[in-house]
Amino acid sequence: MSTMTKRSKRYREAAARVDGTQIYSAQEALEILKSLPGPKFDETVEVAVRLGIDPRKSDQLVRGAVSLPKGLGKKVTVVVFAEGDKAEAAKAAGADEVGSEDLYEKINGGWMDFDVVIASPDMMKHVGKLGKVLGPQGKMPSPKSGTVTPDVGQAVTDFKAGKVEFRTDAGGNVHAPVGKRSFSTEDLLTNLNAFLNHLMGMRPPAVKGIYIRRVSVSTTMGPGAYIDFGG
């Protein structure tokens, strides 16, 4: 209870310094977030985007991945479903765990201590059976996000370097990390713009009217600040 009380007090203090009715420039919003009182750990800075899509229609859903120029500032744990030469390439690229049926059994048994799952196409016979396990976690491999690919070695390199996956949720929102609070404002802004520009380029043809309705940035434990980004 005391932890929650401390957190609530810090959150209220931080929220008092962010005007929820104002739309800031991206740089100003990031500078404000970095200046707020925060916890002792290095928070992740996240972007949340409200899209003007109908999430009930499959032709309007958005899913993909983008490489952030300044990385994520954290260790990304990557597991790979591959055999033979592909498995060796994944290991050489720095994959944290590589396997096929044995990896399926481990994950199906409850192990989820990883951030990204990559699979070569021939391994989907195993991965496909993990849909109910990986799907709710947003970790199910997909060709659209570059996590189902013959070149698993390159995929491991990309995700280790700061490539992030994203997908619309049931409310038509997209969430993604864009770095750490300890990053400079300039590096956070570079990553944020890379993400938003990539998202803009993925506008589904079926979407009419405004595509990007609202954008906010926040830290892990802090309030969000709305930013100006037309779409």
Explain the overall architecture.
Residues 1-6 have low confidence and may be disordered. With 231 residues, the protein is an alpha/beta fold. Strands 1-10-9-2-8 form a 5-stranded mixed beta sheet. The termini are far apart. β9 (212-219) and β10 (225-227) form a beta hairpin. It has helices at 2-15, 26-35, 84-92, 101-108, 124-127, 131-134, 152-161, 185-200; strands at residues 23-24, 44-51, 63-67, 78-81, 97-99, 116-119, 163-167, 173-180, 212-219, 225-227.
Summarize the structure.
The chain is 32% helix and 22% strand. The protein has 231 residues and is of the alpha/beta class.
Please describe the topology of this protein:
Layout: H1 2-15, E1 23-24, H2 26-35, E2 44-51, E3 63-67, E4 78-81, H3 84-92, E5 97-99, H4 101-108, E6 116-119, H5 124-127, H6 131-134, H7 152-161, E7 163-167, E8 173-180, H8 185-200, E9 212-219, E10 225-227
Parallel strand pairs: 1-10, 4-5, 4-6
Antiparallel strand pairs: 2-8, 2-9, 3-7, 9-10
Major beta-sheet overview: 5 strands, mixed
Poorly predicted spans: 1-6
Strand order of the largest sheet: 1-10-9-2-8
Residues in helix, % = 25-40%
Please identify the oligomeric state. single chain
Number of helices: 8
**SSE string:** HEHEEEHEHEHHHEEHEE
| Cα end-to-end separation | 42 Å
